[in-house]
Amino acid sequence: MNDFLQVAPEVMIAIDAGVPVVAFESTIISHGFPYPANVECALECERVCREGGAVPATIAVLGGTVCVGLTGDQIEHLATARGVTKVSRRDLGIVVARHADGATTVAGTMAIAAMVGIRVFATGGIGGVHRGAQQTFDVSADLLELSRTPVAVVCAGAKSVLDLALTLEVLETHGVPVVGYRTSEFPAFYSRTSGLGVDVRCETPDEIADILRAREAMGLRGGTVVANPIAPEHEIDRETLDGWTTRALREADEAGVHGKDVTPFLLARLHALSAGATEEANKQLVWSNARLAAQVAIALAR
Ligand code: PSU
Ligand code: MN
Predict the structure, then answer these.
(1) pLDDT of 38-63, one tens digit each?
(2) How far apart, in Å, do the first and last CA atoms of the chain sit?
């Protein structure tokens, strides 16, 4: 393939043979969890995906090479190295040209997955419209990537630190369908409900695959959000969460955090303020998404 791109042999063979493959992002490893929870999360995603019958392809940039499918050592490196760049679409050319390490966001991972023909991707939560975006213009590039790149993103909705109503408005504007898996509500990451609706409710992975296939058949560009609520036993109580969120947002403001540093800052503060409760919930919901993504990839391959 190209000089800058390295697809792991197992992933390459699977893509060529039409075997289901699921992409995973790496920002969650370098910037979403502390060590060693980040390694545990990534390795368990891969295990769950395999157990479900699909091949996992964790995506990152290492020394300027875009890697699709990582080794355990490469995951460990991303989990422990300092100064790994958070790589969205904007940053891809820069880290490749500079031979740098980069952990890819939802947007960055989607762009790479589409380059190699991977159609399903699992993560925790997509980025969205930040609260106060009317002033800051902080709207995640994930939403714009969803508007242009044909990958289904299995997630637990978007984090409650965001403005979820505005996030759904922007997705609608850009023609991105939001599919609820066994829910009629858009989930709010750590909790199952947000009071906001989805565009369609699906009960099975096959129903989801039908929608993805119909979109592909019509040549509609862009991705699909598959929203999979966190399991009830791992959910965090809304009011408790709101307290931590308000405090984390105020701290971010006081510390003058902005741009790409906002999301990692808020996640780290929530993990600390909740004494690890958000970390545990976050891991559980990611694994659940990995499981569903494998099922969707299998349904799509049929
Ligand atoms: N959700 C999580 N953990 C994360 C992220 C989202 O539970 O680490 C990351 C994803 O990589 C997502 C990114 O693409 O945060 C969004 O960042 P921003 O808001 O700067 O676009
Ligand atoms: Mn942002």
Answers:
(1) 999 999 999 999 999 999 999 999 99
(2) 27
